[in-house]
Amino acid sequence: MNPLASLSKEMEELVDSFMAKAVVGNTTVGLTQYIFFMLVAIAILLIVMFTFKKKQSQSLVPQGFFVNGMEFLVEFARDDLCVSLLGKNWKKHFPFVSAVFFFILFNNIVGIIPGCHPGTGTMGVTAALAICSFVYYVAVGIKRMGVLGYLKSMAPAGLPGPMAGMVWVIELFSNLLRPITLAIRLFCNMFAGHIVMGTFAILATLFVEPLLQGFSAVALGQAACSIFWILLLIIIYLVEILVAVIQAYVFALLSAVYIQLVEDE
Amino acid sequence: MGVIGYGLGVIGAGFGIGLAAYGATTAMARQPEVQGRLFTVFILGSAFVEALALIGFVVTLIS
Hints:
Chain A is mainly alpha-helical. Chain A has one domain. Chain A has helices at residues 7-17, 33-58, 64-86, 90-112, 123-153, 161-213, 217-264; strands spanning 22-25, 30-32. In chain A, 25% of the residues are buried. Chain B has helices at residues 2-30, 35-62.
């Protein structure tokens, strides 16, 4: 019996299980599995942050693994995301950039746990985050330069007349594409990574199945193959943990870069 | 057919990430002191390239 025969059917089931389904209520009013785990991630984030704040204020010197680890994370968000890009303006934008970073990080990490779904694995959440980022940096630009000044600043100064008009139109389009690419990058990374992990898990089970039905030399050989699939699954799982952190970093970093572009004009 | 299309699309993304890693390693070898900042730019560039490949992957699965 060929263990790969039922692969396409299993794959369809896997992709189907990734489509949004209601766990509470129905799809109009209620929670899909993604939004449910997003709320779980928010709850964990709030608990962690408030315990951190409470424990940190107890003593002047940070003590213990938890407080030191959280301080390292917050300092990473401050130094690598804000200070290195925004320079002296970092204090103004630190709340937004670090909030985006920690929200996505906790969502991705919750999604990595087997049986859970990442809150960022659905287009709705990532699009909302990207629109927040878009509105934030446009608002910063308008506050600094006024509506007309912001529109004018999209084209670099010092270009001859017709050239400036053309560059302005191109820049306007790239500006409008930014939230779309932000949303699609995060969604595709989480969705594709979890599909790949699911595929390897399915392959591992498919190769063991003949051994459970009856003992034979061929079935034993196929079961030995599934060890290879499980090894691959573990490697992909480790890569996914890396991807979860990197995507949170990239999203926050790009938000900071876009803010820096309007701050530097 | 979708799988073949995805394979063709990934060629470009593979070249892109390879070029980014090549540039980053050469620059780091020449000037080790800017390693930290180069790494940020490298991750940023690979994220842009990788997104294209992943869009292809998701479109393959959905279509």
